[in-house]
Amino acid sequence: MNLFDKIQETAAFIRSHVTARPAVGIILGSGLGGLTDIISKKVVLHYSQIPHFPVSTVKGHSGELVFGTIGDTEVVLMSGRFHYYEGYSMDAVTFPVRAMKAIGVETLILSNAAGGMNRDFGIGDLMLITDHINLFPEHPLRGHNDDRLGTRFPDMSQPYDLTLISAAKEIARKLNIEVKTGVYVGLQGPTFETPAEYRWLHTIGGDAVGMSTVPENIVARHGDMRVFAMSVITDIGISDTPVVITHEEVLEAANAAAPKMAAIVAELVQQIG
Ligand code: HPA
Fold it and tell me: Which residues of the chain, if any, have pLDDT below 50?
């Protein structure tokens, strides 16, 4: 079955099981699952129930599609995402974005845990992503292009919606939450970077680095969705002495910053609605 038909089947299944018709989709990163708590009137579909959906394997990712509301705005939230390093194809990694688009999602909000490379950043900082550098070894749009899903050569001049970035900055200011902005470098992992790699990624223009978000952004832009994305800086790679980074520390720092991120996302989603 081709990708387009799979997406239609998935969308038909979701529509027949859920009455909500959200225009906002949210994908949560490592350690940020607590954001699910800001959603009311939840209806949950487990990934394993949904046709063509991959199933999540990573610690800290639960693997369910949550439908509900934030204020009066309907949302669909992916709790647990698929990473390329887990061995999924790019089609699988980005399939949920295609499915969201097919059920009517127009704005996608992405979050992740990321390593900081900007010397002004500290652990626990939030960074609004203004742009990205794609260093994944495979492009999610490589291969046959189905024009029903998007154009062959998508424009990427505004990968992250400037209006949403401005709105989030204003929300953060009102809530008294400090936010940074910067460029996210996406690469495959699963190793964290070597000191030389962090220095290099900073030299080429990166402020934060992580193993997600870029494929989903690309597929969302292919489908002409607006994207807003935010990183929690969970470790600082740039240092004069070696810094050991563990997944546990990443999760812990992400968990600690999750309420700040949730507050901003909650407000932003209501403004979009
Ligand atoms: N590098 C890559 N991915 C990450 C990092 C990092 O330092 N921190 C959290 N995710």
Answer: 60
